[in-house]
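Budget justification aside, the reviewers requested a transparent look at the raw inputs and outputs of the sequence design task funded under Objective 1. We therefore reproduce one unedited record. The lines immediately below are the structure tokens for a 282-residue chain.
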């Protein structure tokens, strides 16, 4: 009986000893904060959505505001204040190829016209060649367009496309390139046009584009106006709450006196006197 008691007394301290951790020293770095790790990452892209107001105090919409309220403004004339990112220019080699092809086509037509005057029989119509052969191997240049955005460093795939601006002077009919400073240097421009999904010239954008009607700098100076595709009598700006404004060919035609029969930019016809001394027009 005494032996059992001694064994019992030895087992209790042993069991208690097993419950105590073998290592008495605290774990290293347990509960201690590690030094911060510095990682140099590129800045996130800024599309200026959070900075651009939906509408400016002067009344123009931002690109962000226009797209946010797309259903309200679709197929209506609007004014947008934005930075110019890029004006499309046809690549030099592509433009040269198309110019040479046009000159060749014009020369062939002149030959045919001269032959017809001499009584030569017209050439038999050839079978329709494939589209690639019809273009002479040239890829046609895109229609005139440029890109604007709420921020000068916005990527083109997030920009608003402006299509169908005129490339000729309305009064002289001569070619007139669009010249404007892009980026922050140019400041914010005001672009007036019709907000749409498809342009007249063939562009399409699911988040909308502008069919050009007027382009102004930050001082209000008109850089270009009108539309390259619409006929002159259809060139009009119709902003909500404002009177209709004629632009481009429509504006020039409006300045010409009625019943003169003169084209824009031309002087009125001089009247001829008949033998009886009365004035009459032919």
């Amino acid at each position: 009986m005494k032996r059992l008691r001694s064994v019992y007394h030895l087992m209790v301290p042993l069991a208690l000893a097993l419950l105590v951790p073998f290592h008495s020293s605290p774990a290293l770095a347990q509960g201690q904060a590690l030094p911060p790790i510095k990682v140099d990452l590129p800045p996130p892209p800024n599309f200026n959505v959070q900075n651009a107001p939906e509408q400016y105090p002067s009344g123009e919409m931002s690109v962000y505001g226009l797209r946010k309220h797309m259903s309200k403004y679709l197929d209506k004339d609007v004014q947008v204040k934005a930075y110019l990112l890029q004006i499309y220019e046809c690549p030099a080699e592509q433009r040269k190829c198309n110019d040479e092809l046009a000159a060749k086509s014009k020369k062939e037509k002149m030959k045919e016209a001269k032959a017809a005057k001499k009584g030569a029989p017209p050439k038999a119509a050839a079978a329709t060649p494939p589209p690639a052969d019809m273009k002479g191997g040239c890829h046609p240049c895109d229609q005139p367009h440029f890109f604007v955005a709420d921020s000068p460093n916005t990527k083109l795939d997030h920009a608003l496309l402006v299509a169908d601006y005129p490339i000729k002077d309305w009064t002289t009919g001569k070619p007139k390139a669009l010249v404007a400073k892009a980026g922050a240097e140019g400041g914010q421009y005001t672009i007036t046009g019709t907000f749409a999904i498809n342009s007249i010239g063939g562009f399409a954008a699911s988040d909308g584009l502008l069919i050009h009607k007027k382009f102004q700098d930050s001082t209000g100076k008109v850089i270009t106006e009108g539309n390259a595709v619409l006929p002159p009598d259809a060139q009009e700006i119709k902003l909500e709450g404002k009177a209709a404004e004629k632009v481009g060919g429509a504006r020039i035609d409006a300045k010409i006196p009625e019943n003169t029969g003169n084209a824009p930019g031309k002087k009125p016809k001089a009247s001829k006197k008949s033998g009886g001394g009365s004035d009459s027009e032919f």
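The beta strands are 77-87, 145-149, 160-163, 188-198, 204-216, 222-225, 236-237, 245-246, 272-273, 279-280. Residues 45-49, 125-135, 263-282 have pLDDT under 50 and may be disordered. Computational costs for records of this kind are itemized in the attached budget.
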